[in-house]
Amino acid sequence: MKHLRLLPLLIAAAYYTPHAHAVELIAVGSLGSLGFDLSSSTAGALENGAAGNLLGGVGSGLAYAGNNTFLATPDRGPNASVYNPLVDNTTSYIPRFQTLSLGLSANTSGKGLAFNLTPTLSATTLLYSPTALVYGDGSAGTGGGLTLGGGTPKLNDVGHYYFSGRSDNFDASKSSANPNNGRLDPEAVRVSKDGKSIFVSDEYGPYVYQFDRASGQRINSFALPGSLTAAKPNANGDAEIAGNTSGRLANKGMEGLAITPDGKTLVGIMQANLAQDAKGTLRIVTIDIATKATHEYAYQLSTGSGVSEIVALNDHQFLVDERDGKGLGDGSKAVAKQLFMVDLNGAASVDGVAKLNAASPSVSKSLFLDLVPLLKANGYAANQIPAKIEGLAFGADVSINGVLNHTLYVANDNDFSAAGGDNKFFVFGVTDADLAKAGASYVPQTISAVPEASSYAMFMAGLCMIGLSVRRQRNEIFKP
């Protein structure tokens, strides 16, 4: 993509313009703090006693799929309860994506926000590989009075090798980027232009995988630059950091993922600096979906402790979510939850650069939206603003007082814990005038409609009726 190719150096470092715009909160909705998703086959207790189909963390990643439909990815599962620190308290939770309806309706009461938001869970889809994956035998979590069984998911059968949140499900003889590892910590999700597949970025590898949206089967894997990977993976994060001088930090891999409106390029961002890079200097990686070619760019943190998400405005401008870990769920007051507009046009590539620091040529950025004061102005105390504001997605446009507004959905990751609050969705109205003040513009991603699972099943049944031989497949979609 010509806008993302290496261009002449125009700036020597990131600049930060402290100016926010008149974006408005227009709706808030919730799925409740805890509940159960629609995957009854995973309902059994995990190693820490939590249910395998616990509904939580749905704001870890959020993607628009057309109309009122959104996809949400919980991360590696409930691991807030201490049961085995040798594997970072991770469990055999099977990564999945939830299909949600986030329906907006006009609020005609004359009180409150402009719209009502009613979130509804409509399907749960488990993620798996059609070929065998590497799982741990449990020995990594055994010692000092602790024991742990093997990490192979009980649902596995021939052709269905499920991914898992267990941190020991990897091949210790290879780097953390081995795509045959069974461990997966999905942190972001985006929908392909044809609507038939999804792209998921992860913290363990880091990885970027493509999955079939209808079944949850992995269909593609994208190799990321070697500088991002840990040469010596370990089931325990502290031990892994101690054993590596380069690569992603433990549990701080590719936290955010965007897709350009033309559906041709993925843009991922690391949560924190790599081990070899200066603190606060992050890497953005662009991936050409067709060729798998990658380019790297430097990003400098401003106020947050890390980055949680990136979403496309157009083919070269993006919103990046910087945040601290303070607020509801941390028992403290939220301070930094800010969205920055970044522009890759004119940015110098840092491909092949061994170490980055604050002087490295970085993408330009400016503050677009400061969430804490805006939420406080709408009645939220600082200690009630979710600590982990992570999911970002643009939805369908709406009209407010005759003015076109682009809807920006912001979701939280509650870590599968009631202490983290509800699975909450904030909706903001963003006008073209708001974007123009930031020197930005918005181009929506057009996603082709795909048939619902029930319609697809009827189509397949019709093929069988006319005598075609269709191989039996397990339905990986769970619906009410």
Q: TL;DR?
A:
The chain has 480 residues and is mainly beta.
Furnish the topology, listing elements before pairings:
Elements: E1 24-30, E2 35-36, E3 54-55, E4 61-64, E5 69-73, E6 96-106, E7 115-126, E8 128-129, E9 161-162, E10 186-191, E11 197-202, E12 208-212, E13 218-222, H1 237-242, E14 254-259, E15 265-270, E16 281-288, E17 294-300, E18 306-312, E19 317-323, E20 337-343, E21 364-370, H2 371-377, E22 389-394, E23 398-400, E24 403-412, E25 424-430, H3 432-437, H4 453-465, E26 477-478
What is the terminal separation in angstroms? 42 Å
Q: Share of helix among residues?
A: under 10%
CA-based gyration radius: 21 Å
Strand content: 25-35%
- Total of DSSP H or I helical runs spanning 4+ residues: 4
Unreliable segments of 5+ consecutive residues: 1-21, 453-475
Which structural class best describes the helix and strand composition? Answer: mainly beta
SSE succession: EEEEEEEEEEEEEHEEEEEEEEHEEEEHHE
- Biggest sheet statistics: 5 strands, antiparallel
- Give the overall silhouette: globular
Write down how many β-strands occur, each being a DSSP E stretch of 2 or more residues.
26
Which assembly state applies to the chains in this document?
Answer: single chain
Q: What does the average pLDDT come to?
A: 90
